[in-house]
Amino acid sequence: MDRNRLLMLGGAIAAAIVVVVVLVAFIGGGGGSKSPTTATATNASGGGTEATDAFAGTPQSGDTLGKASAPLALYVFEDPQCPYCRQWNIDTLPTVVQNYVRGGRVKLVYRGIPIISQNSIAGIRAVYAAGMQDKLWQMAEALYERQGEERSGWITIDVIKEAAREVGANPEKLLTDADSDTVTAKLKEAEQLANQYGINSTPSFGYQKQLGTLQPLQISGLEPADFTPGLDAALR
Amino acid sequence: MRLRAAAAAACLVGAGIAAYLTYVHYAGIAPVCTTGGCEKVQTSKYAELAGVPVALLGLVTYAVLFVLALVRGVQAATLGVFVAVVGVAFSGYLLWAQLGPIDAICQWCLGNDLTITVVAALYVVRMLTESPTQKRRPG
User: Fold this and answer.
1) Least enclosed by CB within 10 Å: which of A50, A92, A123, B94?
2) Interchain contact, A157 vs B124, CB within 8 Å
3) pTM of the prediction?
């Protein structure tokens, strides 16, 4: 066999491998990321105000919104593709936050369950990952603002990144965290809880008093006023 | 000639897969999937490189390899080996990402992995066997 030809072959393969190693190092090092500055700029310019106003001044940690010491935890089971979840989030959640959460009486706990399709999992993972930057509730709302037709696959990487930037989260970190074992464990936990309490539709609501078990919240609709009797009764 | 034709045909298969995934990416729709993990893979951070969908990069790669398959000569074959091995190595990295961090398998990616490996093998054989010069016999 032609020795020169073999040397050329070896050179071409070696060069190709060097190119890929550089590419992978570039990806791993976040070389292509413009997220931190973009996120800051977007937020500073007011791009994220719509999705964050409802939560301004309310403590938030992981998947919980409100004071940790609140006597009542309201568990919300959601699917980002679900239109009624959107209605709850956009129209009603701000009032519930204002009336119950800000005063420290109730804390909200997010539980994402994929009811509609596999695409919901991508959204739920992104929401939980935002929780690792204490932006879970803003992220959930930002995704609802972008909600498309059910099962249309609208939860894409671009939608997630755009929503993350809007709420002031680091999109690259969020996408990395979305694939983490921590987020996988959150999904499993939510699924187990939903199975345990027979929850198979969204949005579903349950409340838990300190040291108590989860109880279904009785509501007559998704308007803000529909939550008042159930929450007031649970707080008594 | 047979090797170049086979490489060109394999490139068309790979381009078809890459074109479909590129379309799915920009259309924002869910890919047809029997492995259950395509959407997770597609929405992971590994689906883009510096903001460009890897499916689009794959489409460009197959287009280049297709054109090189139409060109005679050792230089075209050598360039083809280089491009195809870049494709194989990067596909290997994405396969690692599917099995590891993403924890989901996309059937389209596996189809691409197989196709780019076949293309690379054809280019290697072509490079080692192609005649160095194509001299015409006088009439």
Assistant:
1) A50
2) no
3) 0.56
